[in-house]
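Lab notebook: predicted structure, single chain.

Context: the supervisor wants predicted structures on file for every construct in the current expression panel, including those that have not yet been purified. This is the next one on the list. No modifications to the sequence; it matches the entry in the shared construct table.
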Amino acid sequence: MTSPLMISNLTQEWVESLRRWHLELFFIPTTVVTLATLLANPVLLTCIFVSRALRRETRYLLVANTLTADMLFLILNLATVICNAVRAQVPWLVCELVTAVTVTAYCCAILTVTLMVVDTYAAVRWPLHYHEILPPARTYRILLGVWVLAAMYPFTLVIMMELRRGNLNEKVPVCLVLISLGFIQVQNTVEIHIYFFVAALICASLIFYCYIRLYMVTRTQGIWQSRFSRARVTLLAHAILLLLYFAPGFVFTLELFLFQKIDISQDARVWISTVNMCVFMLLPRAFAPYLYGLRYREITDTLMQLLRRHRRLNQTTLS
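Prediction complete. Output recorded below exactly as produced.
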């Protein structure tokens, strides 16, 4: 049973470690990176949904879903970092709900990035039947299913803990996904680790399988012969982005493991959590809009058309 005293003691110790090492200053780079990404993502989303051709393509709908999940994650992450930096008192139930939505957004982005690899494989493997297999209506249903799948487990955990614990009106000075899930896993240790491990294993297996099959299907077409061919550069860029998306999840699993270890110092937990939250988890979301904008020529062309149209409208207004 999670007691108010236990939560209060841990969050107070966490605040003391943050203050001792001045880790609240991490909110500065977090704010800068988040705002830069939140400026770029809506531009790409506008390009996708303004263009009739782009919003009927499965790959662009997957990109749009990834960017949307990233924006939700970044907004909640920034709000959490700022609240922790100013030591705002947050109701524990609100913290749990923020945790559930944050985990949902993170898992949704991971699942969608995995589906992007599967979509690329399907487009290359069955080019003549690709549009029949994945029409826009079916893609929308798949994306809705991805959000439901990503939300099901974290919200189920929150509901179970609320029913088990009863009414708890405790307010905490620090709201972190680690602390929320850390207390939840006291009674659900095996289930939480199985959930993250199985999800990561399925996504990684699908990605490796699709890339290996893509190479086997296309190796006779000569696209891999040049060291700096478009296929090699695209594969490298996507592999780096996938690594940046998956790595913070593995670090977070390590955080959950260390959360229960008595012989690990509190300062070490705070440092690992802060760096993962304010640096590692932001890197893929900072690179994604620029990588997609450069990788997909259609998005860049649509953006340039919108800029030229806006410039003409301004010139017409001024004249």
